[in-house]
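Entry 12.
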Amino acid sequence: MAAASLLGVGMPLATHAAVNENLLTSVTAMSLGNAVTADPPGIESIHFNPAGLARVKGDREFHNIFLATLNTTAKFHQPDNFDIGGFKNDPVNGTTGGPTRLNLYVPGYGMPGWRLPAAAAATLGFSFNNEGSPFTFGTLTYPQSVFSVDHTKDPNDPMRFDGKRMMMQRLALLSPAVGYQVSDTLRVGVSVPISHQAMVINTDMRLPNKLLGIIGKLQEGWCGDGGNPVDTLAFGLCGGGPEGRINPFKRVANLNVDMTAPIDPTINLGVLWEPKDWFALGVVYQGGSKAVHTGTYEFRADPMMRKFVEGMYASLLGPIAAAVTGMPTSIPEVQKGNVTATIPFPAHWQVGFKFKPVKRVQFNVDANYTKWSEWDALTLQFDQSIKLLEAGRILGITDPSKLSINTGFRSVVHWGFGLQLQATKKLTLRFGYEPRKSSIPADKMSLMTLLPDTKLYSVGFNLKIDRDTDINVGASYLKGDFDAPARSSCNLNCDKFFNAIYNPYAGMDVSGGIRVKYIGFNFTKRF
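Predicted 3D structure (tokens):
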């Protein structure tokens, strides 16, 4: 199973709407809009409702494979009143980001350098039940949540300043579970997913801040095209030469973070009540955790800030001004070390109903709630003070050994709907619809989590080959769009004086969307 799990980590997170729970976890569930709590799908009950595992009789093996493509886009427009400290022409104006490629994270190895237009995945599971026993045991390897985008194919992609490469992945490597049949109508179950969680952030950084713009304009006036002979007796604005000229639209640095929480167990509890053939009720609680991630980071500073600081310290008054504003004495080209972060995996509740008004027609309805409000900020704790961040003390960075972004996630309720039609004794058709309300408020939208309200449309079928073998096929299409006018999101395009971290498109109108296409196949066989 562990070998199979290595194949199963390369699928993109379909969306952050609600945020990303239950997506790409199950072919059957996807084809029913993930509305399966009251009719959990076989061995995959381990995730969706462990009580459903008690319905699986005999010893069975489960194989799953699917393919997914992801495309995120963003368009940038400069409004009429655009002005960043005197700079009035942002080079990203009128550009569009893309194309998007995908990455995977292999536990124990890391993230390979591949850039994939699509990603394939495979998972594996087993269940065990002795004839006549009310207990069914099982385990399953499956993705609990995955998000992957890569904007490295085009070196000038404007989206590279807010997530050049981004990966958030949680993979259940092992999930021991048991389902128990209390009576003919009532079943309960519990599973313990033991997961590997990873986060990778690689992004080019720029700081279109008004203060930096003002300094850049002062350099233009004071230094001219060359230098100023009295500059060394003043603050050293010209001492860094052409490379030390401040431009708020230039890249400041590249940040690369790679960290994991290798073993992080949680618990799933489920109840399934089926008092009638035409009605069932399912409830599941999926426990959360606060996984401590550890890993490495690298800041690679471009010449602009490095040369600017050198010029200040080579002048008479510059060191005084630098000391007053908390500037470092120098900025190394590369600064790297170890990083830690506590990243919540929030608890999730799901309640579902199954209705069969006539024998061959079944409706499923589920309500979902995830406590994403626990993740109100992402704080990276570095093992040393970062010199580049020290240069930002004047912009409100109080602790240069930390980089904190206010994510502001919120907890929301969203619904899922499924329709199942039994066409023949062996063939069942499935249809799903899931409007997923985003857990990211509009004023916290960013391109690292370009995940607005989305809608999932899906179809699929189940084919019974014989008494011991089932095949399931599902396909889905998910889409969502967003529009962030200038200054509407302070994780994207605010241009206030102290909103430097992090608003890489300050003052710009940004709009875009996400599209995901998915197809999956699985079969279950008795052995």
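Annotation: The chain is about 10% helix and 45% strand. Residues 210-223 form the longest helix (14 residues).
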